[in-house]
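> call design_seq(struct)
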């Protein structure tokens, strides 16, 4: 009778694991905080609203040049990753202009163009404001992360946010920047990135 109980228990546990895997396994997505302020380089003060797009859905959208909005974001790319891209080693990456760090990414229905730039002084002022109530070493660590890396400027993006219009919104810019940006983003209010150029499918 004990063996019968054990068999039933094991069977129930296996079913639970299988159900849990099916219920909680997600398709790969890219996410941003929707309640951002584009005047803060896309930083969200409250991180209250998340907008996500499945990567598999990008083949339904159109890639358009950024015209009426500033494509600069606070999405960080580390120096190591920048050098990796400049060497033409990034997955899906084409180097358009190595000197000016201009790149395009085309793979799996995603087509975007971007540049890597040194962060402007306005961003460092935003870091100071963001962490003004924290210890000085926090401000120093975040600042050094940006001084030792690059921020992403989007030049061409997929119109995922309002695909019914032939225009690019700042949401589209942030989605594209999140695809390129490092997994970990040190600035509060910038959603972690996908570092998609490091993913080989």
């Amino acid at each position: 009778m004990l063996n019968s109980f054990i068999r039933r228990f094991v069977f129930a546990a296996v079913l639970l694991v299988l159900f849990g895997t099916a219920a909680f396994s997600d398709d790969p997505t890219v996410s941003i905080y929707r309640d951002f302020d584009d005047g803060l380089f896309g930083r969200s003060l409250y991180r209250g609203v998340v907008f996500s797009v499945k990567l598999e859905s990008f083949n339904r959208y159109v890639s358009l040049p950024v015209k009426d909005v500033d494509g600069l974001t606070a999405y960080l790319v580390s120096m190591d990753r920048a050098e990796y891209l400049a060497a033409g080693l990034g997955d899906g990456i084409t180097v358009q202009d190595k000197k000016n760090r201009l790149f395009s990414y085309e793979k799996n229905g995603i087509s975007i163009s971007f540049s890597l730039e040194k962060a402007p002084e306005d961003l460092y002022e935003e870091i100071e404001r963001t962490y003004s109530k924290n210890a000085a070493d926090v401000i120093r660590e975040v600042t050094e992360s940006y001084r030792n890396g690059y921020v992403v400027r989007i030049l061409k993006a997929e119109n995922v946010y309002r695909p019914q219009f032939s225009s690019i919104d700042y949401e589209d810019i942030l989605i594209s920047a999140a695809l390129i940006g490092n997994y970990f983003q040190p600035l509060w209010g910038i959603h972690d990135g996908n570092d998609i150029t490091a993913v080989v499918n």
